[in-house]
Amino acid sequence: MRTLAPLIVSALVLGVGLAGRAAPAGMTDPGAARAGAAPGAPPLAQGTPAAGVTRSGGAQPDEPPAAPAQVGSVRIEAEADRKTVTVGDPITVTIRLIHPPDVRVTSFDPERFLGDLALLDRKAAEPRTLPDGGVQEARVLRVARYQIGASRIPSFEATFVDASGNEGKVATAPVPFAVGSILAEGDTRPADIKNPAIMAVPPTWAFILAAVALASLVAAWMWRRRSRRALPQAEAPAVPPRPAHEVAYAELERLLSSGLLESGRLKQFYIELVEILRRYLTARFGVDTFERTSAEILDALRLARLPVKGMALTAEFFGACDMVKFAKYVPPPEETRTTVERAYRLIDETRPREAAPPEPGISAAAGGGR
């Protein structure tokens, strides 16, 4: 018995070790399940997050597009010029929609699907015919993201009606990218002050030549002034200042013929439209509109005793423009036309009564596409 005891103890220890190694797949230690990850537990497979764990950097789980990228002969594709940026760096995204010429596109507005990306600029390229007879329409967006971590360009959608009258939808696949910090990892100290720049000292003879040439020019000018007799010059009659409403009408006509609406630069169009009305109100009522919000301008006009109808038109005009400038709202062409006509009515209502308003020529210009 004394001889068999050590052998029995060794067999028990070996059996326990083999049982721990040969545990069936999927079974876990209850203590480890309650406490999280037990020491020595094998790590999760790379790229497979545990249940309830959110990936770092704020990236959302990938969601499949709402529609395939190609339906029949209609397809859509998107590409980004950069896959790694720092905070606030612009990314140029090009979205191409390719379809047969007999297909009618009903909606193709990628800027509606940007999510948390900030839109910096938007351009719509002219449709062009491809060598195979298809038509390509393109939108170029400049976007930026102001949060660090993994992100993606979302899925863009387009709807169409084919030659048989059937409606369809295509959507791009999301394009991943990463936003990094401009600071090095773990570096929270401010950057060192750079040494002052060393400017090259030009040779002395250059200053001497320049001084001699300048002295010669001054001497020649003084000699000519003394040698000739001063002739009396007739003063030109003073030109009266142009009325504020005439200036505003001319600027509106210039804006409507600038081509901003036809090229899809809708936000820039609204910015210039607001500036024209700001300058008019300043010149007409002496109200300071520089760097003031719409509410502050309305308060100043109320103190200037602007009539009630003029106040209502001003509030409606600035409210419609602020939606486009600050809320990323893309109005349809009919609403843009209404806003321009409201600007004309505001000037007509508040101009001096002795001046006759011109006919607003906005029927063709304000009806352009986005």
Q: What does this protein structure show overall?
A:
Helix 7 (308-326) runs antiparallel to helix 8. Among the domains are: 70-180, Sandwich (Immunoglobulin-like); 244-350, Up-down Bundle (Four Helix Bundle (Hemerythrin (Met), subunit A)), CATH 1.20.120. The strands form three sheets. Strands 1, 2, 4, 6, 7 and 8 form a six-stranded antiparallel sheet that branches. It has 370 residues and is of the alpha+beta class. Helix content is 35%, strand content 18%.
Please identify the top-level CATH class of the domain at 70-180: Mainly Beta
Q: What is the helix fraction of residues, given as a range?
A: 25-40%
The CATH topology annotation of the domain at 70-180 reads as Immunoglobulin-like
- Low-confidence stretches are 1-60
How would you state the average pLDDT, rounded?
Answer: 76
Q: How many beta-strand elements?
A: 12
Question: DSSP strand (E) fraction?
Answer: 15-25%
* Tally of separate helices: 8
Order of helices and strands: HHEEEEEEEEEEEEHHHHHH
Question: How many whole angstroms does the radius of gyration measure?
Answer: 36 Å
How far apart are the first and last residues' alpha carbons, in Å?
Answer: 98 Å
> Could you give me the name of the CATH homologous superfamily of the domain at 70-180?
Immunoglobulins
Q: Can you name the CATH architecture of the domain at 70-180?
A: Sandwich
Class by helix and strand content?
A: alpha+beta
Q: Could you give a short account of the major beta sheet?
A: 6 strands, antiparallel
